[in-house]
Write a structure and sequence with these properties.
Layout lengths: L5 E2 H7 L1 H5 L5 H7 L3 H5 L4 E2 L1 H15 L15 H9 L5 H13 L6 E7 L2 E7 L9 H18 L5 E5 L11 H4 L4 E2 L5 E6 L11 H7 L5 H5 L7 H9 L9 H7 L4 H10 L4 H17 L6 H7 L5 H12 L3 H8 L1
Parallel strand pairs: 5-6
Antiparallel strand pairs: 1-2, 3-4, 4-7, 5-7
Helix pairs in contact: 6-7, 16-17
GO molecular function: DNA-binding transcription factor activity; transcription cis-regulatory region binding
Protein name: AraC family transcriptional regulator
Keywords: DNA-binding, Transcription, Transcription regulation
Length: 332
């Protein structure tokens, strides 16, 4: 219920390859409960499980795990075979090298490379030759390889830097969910930088856990935003304990053993505010319940601390561009 929702931009971007291939995906969207109204509203959000199903549906419809963005299709099942080839390696370095070797066997596959830079490791991606106007394949591959590596060793790999070979895109504000680290744009190559200590870590997964992992991955890896260890993420986890009774900023600052002024400054440095965090969490919890028949609109409003449904209605439309009723109608 407290998972972060996905911006409608990513659903529109994911459909770009299908449009390029001339695929009629209207039936697929209807099946996923994604209305054209929601897709066309820039402020709208979709639930993570919806996004997972959309990606999986597009793979099958296009017969391509690159969703029409690569120089050549990647047959569904390629990612799974790569994982099976890597799962028995003794450490993360061997597993990543074997995975990259697997994809290098396909002449038109995206080129990824792993190289050491003193105490750091850079996973770089050559995305210069693709048809990828919204950078969807670049973002997806970097996210998938980072989260696959984290899953293999059973702990989140802390990113030190994410670099991109293009200017900051319009949806750059969403990057903190994908790459919770310092960002660099207009770089020579798109890449991720992390500490080399992770490479020596043993794999904690096996064939049994891989089978369960592959039921929803790599689509699931894309749809689960990385909370990271930022102050914003810590506050979100704290606030989500009881959405109806929010602690005020002063109480939160006391809980964190810092002054309210310091809390405000740190949040400002992360590009957000206490009120914005509360609104985002309320929005995401509302979207969760609107996609289910468990609560009425009045009950959702009460659970989120609104004094009356009309206040919830106005706030939700301000957050997403759509009314709660319109969201529920297209979800159910």
């Amino acid at each position: 219920m407290r998972e972060r929702t996905i911006a409608s931009h990513f659903a529109r971007a994911a459909l770009g390859g299908a449009r390029r291939r001339g695929l009629d995906y209207s039936g697929l969207l209807q099946q996923m409960g994604i209305s054209p109204e929601l897709l066309d509203e820039p402020r709208a959000r979709i639930a993570p499980e919806q996004f997972t199903r959309l990606i999986q549906g597009l793979w099958l419809a296009l017969d391509d795990e690159y969703l029409g963005f690569g120089n050549a299709p990647s047959k569904p099942g390629s990612f799974a075979m790569m994982c099976h080839a890597s799962i028995h390696c003794r450490n993360l370095e061997k597993a990543l090298q074997r995975g990259l070797l697997f994809y290098s066997l396909f002449p038109d596959a995206p080129r990824l490379a792993l190289r050491r830079e003193d105490e750091w490791v850079r996973l770089s991606l050559d995305d210069a030759q693709w048809w990828d106007p919204d950078h969807f394949l670049t973002e997806s591959l970097l996210v998938i390889w980072h989260r696959l590596g984290s899953w293999l060793i059973g702990q989140r790999i802390r990113l030190e830097q994410a670099s991109f070979s293009y200017p900051r895109p319009e949806h750059g504000g969403e990057y903190d969910l994908l790459f919770p680290c310092p960002l660099t744009f207009d770089a020579e190559q798109s890449s991720l930088l992390f500490h080399s200590r992770y490479l020596a870590m043993p794999l904690l997964q096996d064939e049994r856990t891989l089978k369960h992992f592959l039921e929803r991955s790599p689509a699931d890896l894309l749809s689960r935003p990385d909370d990271g260890d930022s102050l914003s993420s810590r506050l979100r986890r704290l606030l989500s304990r009881d959405a109806a009774h929010w602690p005020d900023l002063e109480a939160v600052a006391a809980h964190l053993h810092i002054s309210p002024q310091t809390l405000r400054r740190h949040l400002r440095e992360e590009g957000t505010s206490f009120q914005e965090l509360k609104d985002q969490l309320r929005r995401d919890i509302a979207i969760y319940h609107l996609g289910r028949a468990d609560l009425s609109l009045q009950q959702i409003a009460e659970q989120l601390g609104f004094s009356e449904p009309s206040a919830f209605h106005r706030a939700f439309k301000k957050w997403t561009g759509l009314t709660p009723g319109a969201y529920r109608a297209q979800e159910l």
